[in-house]
Write a structure and sequence with these properties.
Oligomer: homodimer
CATH superfamily of the largest domain in chain A: Chorismate lyase-like
Number of strands of chain A: 10
Low-confidence stretches of chain A: 1-25
Radius of gyration of chain A: 22 Å
CATH topology of the largest domain in chain A: Chorismate lyase
Largest sheet of chain A: 6 strands, antiparallel
Distance between the termini of chain A: 32 Å
Structural class of chain A: alpha+beta
Number of helices of chain A: 8
Largest interface: A-B, 33 and 33 residues
Number of domains of chain A: 2
Chain lengths: ~270, ~270
DNA sequence: CAGTGGTCTAGACCACACT
DNA sequence: GTGTGGTCTAGACCACTGC
């Protein structure tokens, strides 16, 4: 990879300001804006700017990295496309946050059968359980934890319009979530990922979901208010932070009589 | 919207070549590259370039539209991001096609439980039915057709590894698919959307899916080789061409014992 | 080699938000 | 007005492809 200092020195050798071209003819060439992107990413990960805060202006960043504004711009463009940054014309570029979001649940794709108003109405959350325990083998594997590591297990129910719709089992690495209790979960207003972000410094930036259809058994049917034998949508979500590190495994069961899971393809 | 001719005339008034700014202070301002994007889109829709073919080079397009290469570039960037065009460094920019694709089914999100090799192995297709009929009310509504318009109804089964996995019911506007028969569907090698594209000039560029969990009844269970009461993933897909016009409604039932529906969130 | 897309720069000006 | 992101340009050079 072409290192940044190299590029700068090349730049200084051309004081007339014409782009000298940054690539040294080399194996595995990386464009300047990608290197800038990586540097910004590192600052985000290091917490140099907090979620919701503005990052320095493009001009400032260009000066800091000794590149043109256009190059910084392209780096920020990609980070904004990945929902890590938010651009607001006339105001600045801000670190994305789960706390002050236009939609309650950014990762929840459930939509009511009726009413085209996008997200379902306000949810009511009930936490049934929250305990620390040794990670089950499959959970440890998914979260990339050593066998038997401590995890926090949370069980909760999400209700819309007064009826239970989602039963979630959630596992979090214990060492990242010291002091997480059902009480703190219940008290916090706003999405759970907002709490994780502000209280534990863990930011979910990407997730993969595996969807299957399953039949409700006696252990879950009553919790969702359905009969055994009802079909439920099983949603297994693995959420990741910076560096694609997995930090949450979630197994959800969704009632899909009044709601559906919406997806867009292109 | 700022019209293109206006911009050009402004341009010509500044022969020194410095960007004069294109926007007239006006309500509903549209940037130049958006206008270029719209023009390219119109050419695509009109079939000026066929799927798989190269479009003119950025320099040629810049000359045609009397804008800078950078402006054309930004327009093409967005179209490529929407999977309407494919860029290939050193070769050119190509019209996206369903025919010569690296994956068999671009819109199919099914993945085997084992084997991380992405898409499922080669599919076997069996067409159970293909007939013209008056559109059911809900189908006509979804496809934006007048009540009672003719549609083509197709029923088919997709099998992987010798076992049936997907039962699809498909409806297509009759007037766009004259002469579509089960035989032509069976004969065609490659994805169905490739056939639609090359034989009927209909290109699917975007789709929305609604996912639900349902229980298999006696009418579908035998076709998928499962018992009645098994949970199946119901996938309703509405596919659209240019201008967001809906041109295909598809209701699929997926077995999700050996496969799952994969989705990425960010 | 020429032609294509890809990167980078510098500079000008517009649209928007706050003061 | 000042400062921010957003658009547009012109020009140079790099990386990749194929003749």
């Amino acid at each position: 990879m072409t290192s940044l200092p190299q590029s700068s020195s090349v730049l200084e050798a051309h004081p007339e300001g014409v782009a000298p071209g940054v690539a040294v003819s080399s194996p595995s060439f990386s464009p300047l804006y990608q290197q800038i992107k990586t540097l910004i990413l590192k600052s985000l990960q290091a917490g140099e700017w907090r979620p919701g805060e503005a990052i320095p202006s493009e001009i400032d960043l260009a000066a800091r990295f000794k590149v043109s504004q256009g190059t910084v711009r392209k780096a920020i463009d990609e980070l904004a496309a990945e929902n890590l940054l938010m651009r607001r014309q006339g105001k600045g570029t801000f670190v994305a946050t789960h706390a002050e979001e236009r939609v309650q649940y950014r990762f929840l794709r459930l939509t009511p059968n009726q009413s085209a108003s996008g997200q379902p109405e306000v949810a009511k959350r009930v936490f049934l359980d929250c305990k620390r325990m040794p990670a089950p083998a499959d959970v440890a594997l998914a979260l990339n934890l050593p066998a038997g590591a401590t995890v926090v297990e949370v069980r909760r129910i999400l209700s819309f319009a007064g009826r239970p719709v989602i039963l979630d089992d959630i596992w979090l690495p214990g060492h990242l979530f010291e002091g997480l209790t059902a009480e703190r979960l219940s008290e916090y207003k706003g999405p759970m990922y907002g709490l994780f972000e502000s209280e534990f410094g863990v930011r979910m930036i990407r997730a993969e979901e595996k969807l299957r259809a399953v039949v409700a058994d006696e252990s879950v049917a009553p919790l969702l208010g359905v009969k055994s034998g009802t079909a439920l949508l099983s949603v297994e979500r693995l959420s990741r932070t910076y560096g694609d590190q997995p930090v949450e495994l979630r197994r959800g069961l969704y009632r899909t009589d009044d709601y559906y899971y919406r997806n867009e393809l292109s």
